[in-house]
What does this fold into?
Amino acid sequence: MSGAQDAVTITAYPDGPLLVRGAAVIETSDGEPIEVTRRTVALCRCGLSTIKPFCDGTHKAAGFRTDA
It folds into this structure.
C-alpha cells in the first residue's frame, strides 16, 4: 500500500473516544506494541474503560464531556 491508504488519521469525537484510522502502531508506556487487529480503533479518553487503551463505551454512562 502507499499514499492515502497508508495515512493515519486521529479524530477526537465530542464527548467520546479518539478514533484512529489506518496502519497506526499503538504502544504501551513502556514502548511495547499493542496488538491491533482492525484498521480502525477507538481509544479511551475518559480513563474509565475496562479495556484500556481502547474505548468500551463507559464514557456514555459516566457522562464524560469534552470541549472539542
